[in-house]
Structures are given as structure tokens and as C-alpha cells.
Amino acid sequence: MINSSKKLQKDFVSYFISNFVPLIMNLLAVYIYTAILKTDEFGEYNIVISTYTIISMFLFEWIGQGIMRFMPIYEKEGTTPILMKIVKVINTLILAFVVLFVIQKVCIRYNVLDELIIGALYVLTSGVFLILTSILRAKLNSGLFLKVSLFQSVINCVISIGLLINFKSFWMIVISKVITNIIAIIYLIREINKSKIIANDEIKITKDKLKKILMEMLKYGFPIILTGIGSMGLKIGDRYIIKYILGNSGVGIYTSNYMISENITMVLFGPIMTAAHTLMINLYEKNQIEELKNMLLQIKKSSILLFIPIIMYITLFHKNTSNIFISKSYDVGSLVIPITLLGIFLFNYGLYNFKIYEFKLKSMKITNVITICFFINIVLNICLITKLNIYGAALSTTSAYAIFFIISVYVNKKEKFINRIENKFTIKLIINNLVLFIIWLTIKFFSNKLLRIDNYLENIIFVIFTATPVFLGYLYISVFKLKMIKLK
């Protein structure tokens, strides 16, 4: 019990660092991107990278999800080496294809910046990287995951900024991601081979075992692919509609502000869910349902405790926040940040409620709900963007996320897979945040008279001073709640 709880806390710290440092690198990179690229160029970049990401997810997500779901089971059955050999073959074929593809294009003297080459390389290298990191997550190897995440975020930031400053084309950002993926893959393969996770050539693979493993991974992973694509559609579908109605410039302004919300929620939800994922599966497989419910309850309470002050802060100081992380020409859309932040929170919280379907291998039910919300989002976007510009997109996406959340609450009650949050907790939460809101409202009143919103240094000092309590509270609450989770 103690060892598992300590392992969860240790993994949380590792995954927090592996999310927080990329957050800083991403925000720094976005600021440079928006300073160099015009709004329409940055908008076109987001359309391109979103399209490639969806393709990569469709091709490879089922493998990554299957590895994380079934590796603990295969370890007990002694069939993990077969799974790892399958992974090794897939990775080898992809990397061989990448090498041959590049050689073929170079030999026939294609333009180095051919868009199809860049896109194919990004999709394939992202797929291999996803598979390899899924192995680390399934093995609870948070230490190596931390090293790779830090390495990748720093290298990508440096390379992308260097290329962009010299060539001033958004394609340089995509190329930097390809280069970073290749470097990270080489490092990961070296480390995984050193740790002897990958199977050796002496393992005999029978046709029946191979079929069993592949079908299990596909049956579990494919619905999650559709879920992932649906959630990606919810997240980025509005960008295509904005492009059609408002042009690439509208996409650039909207996505630059949306990315701030996305990075905040990445740090808020990513570390704890990554650390707890395999442990939750183990608890469910051992039929320790009450322990599993307790874990989810503490995660939910932590999320609520952290999110409310964050959303209050962003709502009051969205202009200051936007001016720090993106170029001033983009801050006209700063109100997008609190609107979409609320939506992303509701979606992630809803995923907690839908965990029961994931454990029961009924991911298709989650997919069905996301599909419904996706089409609602499309209709709302078409109606609202024409009237409210980019804010219509933000409201549409958040409304669709809210519908997903409401359905998840109903499902949770129906499945009786919930420990209710105590009234005492709710009352304390309201009182504490009311006091915090009054303090911040007072600060905002005086800051409007004293602070120059267009002064970058003053904005940085102001945000650091006012947001530090929230950051420290995040660390304290997360670790404190993890200590309350009792694992056998």
C-alpha cells in the first residue's frame, strides 16, 4: 500500500516536471512564432499541423493505447515479449520507410521543402515516438519519460526558433518537430534496448498468440482512435470553419490564445492522469473498485480545487496573460482564453466520469457521445462565428464540451461508479474562492490605474506576483490529495 502510494506521488512529480518545462518552452516558442509570423501565416501553420496530427493519431494511436492497456496483463501472462517484438517490427518498418522515402526524394532531386515529404515525415516520426513513449508509460518508467520530455521540448524550442529566425516560414516549425522526433526516437530506442524491455530474437511467436494480441489491441484501441479524433475534432474543428469564414488571420488570432488555455490544462490534468493511468487499470483488474473510486474522487477534488482559482484569475486578467505569452497583434482575442479554458476543463473532468467505460473496454460509447458533441459543435460554429467572430468559435466549443460533461455526469450516476464530493468540501471551496476573488478584484481595480497594459516587463512582474499563489497551491494540493489515496 505504502509503496504504491509513494510510487504514485513520485510519478506525479516526474510527470509534472515533464509537462511544466514543455509548457514554458511551448509558451516561449509561441511568443517567438507570433512575433515573427503574421496572423495569417500562424493561422495556416495551425491548420497544417492540426491536419497532420489527426492523420498520425488515426494511424498510430490504437497501438499506443493498446500497449498502455494490456502490457500489465501480458506481463502476468508472460506474453509481453511477443507484444514488444510486434512493436519492434512496426517501428523498424516505419523507420525504414522514412529512410527510403527521404533517399528516394533526394535522389530524384525533389525540392527539400516539398510539403508532402515534410508532412509524411512528421506523421511517421510522431507515430514511432508515440509508440515508444507508450511503452514507458505502461512500464511506469516516469524517470525516462521525464528525461525524454525535457530533452524534446528544449531541443524543439531551440531548433524551431533558430530555423524560423533564419528562414521566416512556418514550415520551419514543422521541420523542427520532425528533426526533434528523430533525435528523440534514436535516444528512446537506445534507452529501451539498454533496459531490455524490447524482446530478443529468441522469442517464438505463434500465429494464434500474434492474432490474439493484435486483435485485443485493435478492439480496444480503435474506438479510442475514434474518440481521440472526435475530441480533436471538438478541439480543432472550429479552426477550419474560422478559416472558411474569417480567413487564416482569424485562425491565427484564435489559436494563439487557445494554445494558452491548452497549455494550462496540460499541466493541470496531464501529470496526475498519466501517473495514475496504469495504477487505475491494475486496481480495476484486481477488482479493488472502492480504492479505484477513491483515487478518482481525490483526482476530481484536486482538479476542482485548482481550476476555480485559475479560471477566476484568467477571467480577470486575460489581457495581461495574453500580452505575456503572445505578440501584441494577437491579443485582440484574449477573451478566448477564459472561455475555452472552461470548456477544456469540463471535457477533461467528463473523461474522469467516463473512465468506467474505458475500464470495461466499452470505449465506443465514449466515442458515440463525442461524435454527437462534435456535430453540435460544427452547427454552433457555423451559426455563431458569423455573428461573434472568433468568440463565437470559443463559445461553440465550450458549449459542446459542456454537453459532453453533462452526459458524463448522467452516465456516472447510472453506472454507480462514483464517490460523492462532500458538502463540507463544497462549502469551504466556495468561501475560500470568494475571498480570493475579492482580493484579485481589488488588485485589478488598482492595477488598471497603475499598470501599463502594453508594457511587457510590468505585465510579467504583475502576473508572476499575482499568479504565484495559484502555482504553489497547485503543487501542495496535488501532492496532498495523492497522499490521501490508499493503494494495496
Give a structural overview.
Helix 9 packs antiparallel against helix 16 and helix 10 crosses helix 16. The chain is built from 16 helices and no strands. It is globular. By secondary structure, it is mainly α. It has one domain.
What topology does this entry show?
Elements (H helix, E strand, L loop, with lengths): L1 H35 L2 H39 L2 H28 L7 H24 L3 H26 L3 H24 L12 H40 L1 H38 L3 H28 L1 H8 L10 H18 L1 H5 L3 H26 L1 H26 L7 H28 L5 H28 L5
Short characterization:
This protein is mainly alpha-helical and 488 residues long. It has one domain (2-421, 452-483).
Q: In angstroms, what is the radius of gyration?
A: 23 Å
Distance between the termini: 4 Å
How would you characterize the largest beta sheet? none
Low-confidence stretches are: 484-488
DSSP, total strands: 0
| Overall body shape | globular
Helix content: over 70%
Structural class by SSE content:
mainly alpha
Number of helices: 16
Mean pLDDT: 77
- Strand fraction band? under 5%
- State the order of secondary-structure elements, H for helix, E for strand: HHHHHHHHHHHHHHHH
**Total number of distinct structural domains:** 1
Protein traits:
488 residues; mainly alpha; 16 helices; 0% strand; globular; disordered C terminus; Polysacc_synth; Oligosaccharide flippase family protein; cell membrane; transmembrane; Poly_Biosynth_Transport
